[in-house]
Amino acid sequence: MPQSFSLTNFLGQLGYFAGQDRAALKQIAATAIPRPAEAGETLFLEGDPCIGLWMIEHGRIKIYKLNPQGNEHILRILGDNNTFNDVGALDGGTNPANAAALSDSMLWVLPTKTFRDLISKDSGFSARAIQILSRRIRGLVGQIEDLTLYSVTVRVARLLLKQTEDPALSGIGVTRAALAAHLATTPQTISTALRELEMTGAIQFDRHNIQIVDEELLRSIAML
User: Fold this and answer.
1) What is the pLDDT of residues 168-205, one digit of tens each?
2) What is the pLDDT of residue 5?
3) CA 199, CA 160: separation in Å to the nearest integer?
4) Are 203 and 112 in contact (CB under 8 A)?
5) Residues 34 and 98 in one domain
6) Maximum distance among all Cα pairs of the chain, rounded to whole angstroms
7) I need a surface site. Which of 7, 105, 170, 173 has the fewest CB within 10 A?
């Protein structure tokens, strides 16, 4: 497929660019930088200069932080037609977290200058950016609520349900280590929570697979 055609159509599917006419999308596409990535590849590190807004054409990306001991905490897992590193692109500062590819991926980077020019010159774009960032702030508040107000068992139940609903998570095998990294706990604690959920009849699990047996029961445990 011709790059300009496919990239223009791709941009039109992203929330930031909804409502832009085709001529404007072509101008924006002309500044975008292709960035293919292999599974396991680090895209950028926290504290490094932000080069722009990242856009996922296809693939799975994790956004994560490392504690002083080097343990990983996954903040978000993103899939096709998602954007990330919005904050760094918006304020022109450094990357607020690390990012790595979980699968072979095709990404595009909209340079910080292009992103900030759109913010300053296009009121419609600015309004959409506010809406998108507001939703993400609500999501972060929800994460903080989960981590501070609910037990690990409830948080595991919520994440397992989210995996069935979120396309970005549905293709990724859930291991105890991955759950622990996402829920800011240890694999041993995750194992205890999984055993509790299995005893209720909500799930079945072994070393390599977690299967939801009773979604309604799991939803009630998750307090949803």
Assistant:
1) 665 555 567 777 888 888 888 988 999 999 999 999 88
2) 46
3) 16
4) no
5) yes
6) 58
7) 173
